[in-house]
Design a protein that fits this description.
single chain, 15 helices, seven-stranded mixed beta sheet, alpha/beta, binds pyridoxal-5'-phosphate, four-stranded mixed beta sheet
């Protein structure tokens, strides 16, 4: 009998007992190779001694002080570290406790900015279908995951959803990748105009789509065209890098590879690497200045803003990643990882697409490769795959099936940056065996 309100109310998961490096062990002594870092969280692996030492030192000094009274040395240091690597023009960091809080804060920051600069008529967000921005009501409103939204749709703030950048399913045979990207930017422009050009607060997008559609890498030029459309109408660009940021795709921020700078950017998972709950919004100077010269106060806040323990963990994680050159390692080994996946699964009759960058890869599973027909959601291929992979000692992150009714199941892979080539080979071997077993019985 469990008293924990687990996400699956009719199942109790295995008990995680300990973790080290690339592996988690359960209370029965089974060992799992962590190929997804939980949900793309664990950037530095488990039990890193320097992170543990930083957390011990912090708890011995200052575990907590409320931000309505104090700042802390460690929060200031973390903000300096993050601004040191941030996209051009970013000047301030708002430190929260996770991804949804970061997105929620960014949405409210964007809205308050327009109130401060005398454009209170801007009340509408535009985002994308098949996206995920978190589970709190604001974040859920901009999210485009139909299944997650459905029960709550009547109580969400209004948002318009345009097409995601999903070339495998939505690029036409008669258009190039660049033309496809421009078509999507035109669709965004039409949505802004339809809403009323001066009524839109922001366009919200994951730079590389994560959980909902299985790693959607943007086509070349897409985000540059999106940025130009936003600028034309004075609409802010909020990039959600909660999952794809902090080195995951082979650059510190995924937007670096797109050559665009957002107005606000959210980060979380890889920031603290799972050692503590932490997220952040990185904000452009002009937004912070407008608020500081206006009301002088961000009308928002949480009890655990800038939590010293969380900041200490994140600072240590980021310092180790920078010192050890792990982002460059992710970029280089990521190419090898992609090649391993292509070799093992590229010709599989139930693998429709393999896509990704760095240590962030998605494998889309289909019932029929020629027609791209997804598996029947009733077969719950993703749940079967998760179970089968765990039985083989592999943690991967399958998702899909019921999303918008037109999308194949996919598996997300996001190993910790410390993974060696041997680990990557082992991940691919176990995943290939699992995909084969599960799709064969589903077909
Ligand atoms: N944004 C993105 C892109 C995410 O992938 C997630 C979580 O998966 C979130 C926001 C929400 O983050 P959290 O679960 O920490 O609230």
């Amino acid at each position: 009998m469990t008293h924990v309100f687990h996400r699956h109310l009719r199942q109790t998961p295995p008990v995680a007992a300990s973790a080290q490096g690339m592996f988690i062990r359960d209370a029965e002594g089974r060992e799992y190779l962590d190929a997804s870092g939980g949900a793309a969280v664990s950037s530095l692996g488990h039990g890193h001694p320097e992170v543990m030492a930083a957390m011990h030192a912090q708890i011995d000094t200052l575990a907590y002080a409320h931000t309505s009274f104090f700042t802390s040395e460690v929060a200031e240091q973390l903000a300096d570290e993050l601004i040191g690597g941030a996209p051009e023009g970013m000047s301030h960091v708002y430190l929260v406790s996770g991804g949804s809080e970061a997105v929620e804060s960014a949405l409210k920051m964007a809205r308050q900015y327009f109130v401060e600069v005398g454009q209170p008529q801007r009340t509408h967000f535009i985002a994308r279908r098949q996206s995920y921005h978190g589970n709190t009501l604001g974040a859920l409103a901009v999210g485009g995951n139909a299944w997650r939204r459905e029960p709550f749709a009547p109580i969400l703030v209004p948002a318009t959803h345009v097409a995601p950048c999903y070339p495998y399913r939505e690029q036409r045979a008669d258009e190039s990748a660049e033309q496809y990207g421009l078509r999507l930017a035109d669709e965004l422009e039409a949505a802004i105009v339809a809403q009323g050009a001066d009524r839109v607060i922001a366009f919200v997008a994951e730079t590389v789509g994560g959980a909902t559609a299985g790693v959607l890498t943007p086509v070349p030029g897409y985000f540059k065209a999106v940025r130009a459309v936003c600028d034309k109408y004075g609409v802010l660009l909020i990039l959600d890098e909660v999952m794809c940021g902090m080195g995951r795709t082979g650059s510190l921020h995924a937007c670096e590879q797109e050559g665009v700078v957002p107005d606000l950017m959210t980060i979380a998972k890889g920031l603290g690497g799972g050692y503590q709950p932490i997220g952040a919004v990185l904000a452009q100077r002009r937004i912070v200045e407008a608020m500081s010269k206006g009301s002088g106060f961000f009308q928002h806040g949480h009890t655990y803003l800038g939590h010293p323990m969380a900041c200490a963990a994140a600072l240590a994680v980021q310092q180790v990643i920078r010192r050890d050159g792990l982002v460059a390692k992710v970029r280089d080994d990521g190419m090898a990882f992609g090649a391993m996946l292509a070799e093992a699964l590229g010709d599989h009759p139930h693998v429709g697409d393999i896509r990704g960058r760095g240590f962030f890869w998605g494998v889309e599973l289909v019932a029929d490769r020629a027609s791209k027909q997804p598996f029947d959601p009733a077969l719950a291929v993703n749940a079967c795959l998760k179970k089968d992979a765990m039985a083989r000692g592999l943690l991967c992150y399958p998702f899909g099936g019921t999303v918008d009714g037109r999308q194949g199941e996919h598996v997300l892979l996001a190993p910790p940056y410390i993974a060696t080539r041997d680990h990557l080979h082992e991940i691919v071997a176990r995943l290939a065996a699992s995909v084969d077993a599960v799709t064969r019985s589903a077909a």
